[in-house]
Amino acid sequence: MGLINTLAITDSALTAQRVQMDVIANNTANSETTVTPEGGPYRREEVVMVPGNMQASNGMGTANAGVRVAAVIQDQSKPRSVYDPKNPQANAQGYVQYPNVDPITEMTNMMAAQRAYQANVTMADNVKSMALRAIDLGKG
User: Fold this and answer.
1) Who's near 45: CB < 8 A, 6+ residues apart?
2) Listed residue (19, 7, 77, 76) closest to 49, CA to CA
3) For the segment 7-60, what is each residue's pLDDT rounded down to a tens digit?
4) I need a surface site. Which of 65, 68, 92, 122 has the fewest CB within 10 A?
5) Do residues 56 and 47 touch, judged by C-beta distance below 8 A?
6) pTM of the entire predicted model
7) Per-domain residue ranges for the chain?
């Protein structure tokens, strides 16, 4: 697999992780949103990633390489019910429906996405260094 293919694969992963971090930030920002334009509380979103469309050879054949975002879907789990009869959003029984967002899960997911993003930045930097070294060797 050439350096250009490696950069393309790394670029696809960087793009996918950026989308992942954006979705996580949106989930976190809306963790207390009890009313949306669609009605009801905000629903947590998840990123669905699938193998990319690039073809790469590993010496034993070719396979799809890279990653791409196939969709951003809503988590269909039930909202949290919190007893707060004084809240204007409370139902007749005094419960308010809050989003199905768990801040600890979102922070854990954000840390994983940031680490994956940083690993891909490091890979891109290494590929760039190898390409520059190869150019220098070609000059000499």
Assistant:
1) 23, 26, 27, 72, 73, 74, 75
2) 19
3) 888 999 999 999 999 999 999 999 999 999 988 999 999 999 999 876 655 565
4) 92
5) no
6) 0.83
7) 3-130
